[in-house]
Amino acid sequence: MFFKLKLRGFTLAEVLITLGIIGVVAAMTIPTLIANTRSQQYRSRLKKTISTLSQAARMSQAQYGYDFAGITQRCGANGGTEHPETTQSICAILNGTLTGATYFNSATDIPMNKGGQYSVESPFIKNVITSMSNLSNAHAYVLADGTIVAFSPNLGRSSCSLEIGKILTDTHSGASMDACAGFIDVNGSNLPNKEVSCSSGSNSLAQSTCVVKNDAKHMTDIYPIRFHDGIVEPATAAARYVLKTAK
Length: 247
What we know:
Blueprint: H1 12-64, H2 90-97, E1 102-104, H3 123-127, E2 139-142, E3 148-151, E4 181-185, E5 222-228, E6 231-234, H4 237-244
Antiparallel strand pairs: 1-2, 2-3, 3-4, 4-5, 5-6
């Protein structure tokens, strides 16, 4: 007795429809996954770098007797060789406490992965910290993990200190802290080199309305900061939001 075996499978049309559905779902979800992954990387790198810089100030205070508030000199032409035992500059602090960091007297000397001159798009620097609007005047360190920390050439001109109980604000009258400003580029010399911005709300530190979405337009890689006393703080509401939401 013979049995007739029937083989059943998918038709070409069914396969094409299934692949089409998978393609649509992938097109909808992959960009979101990429944006979330990039957002987590940026948040993690920002938190780590601010912690590293703040720890450097505390180590300098413990070992050499001064932190960011005790800086009395600007970085010299050979800032990369300054030592905290002989010079009270931010370069001396970082040289004496960080390992694996490379100093650049001019931020524009930082090599780009794809060539060209290092530059950033930052309203904070352009409108508030005019001494850094031309990055060739700014000093910078490239940390061991590739993160860039740049700061005003005037850091050391005035006291980088806040009174106990005072909260960092957008602008400071009198004893200005604008000379104590800089930025962190969490993505190194890779693009977009653009300041993080609020997708909704105000970018003012005086308000608590700023929200930064995980899209490529707002969650970017430049984070303005101010150095003072024994810590580093975000200098804009957008940068503060990203730091506060970092795990």
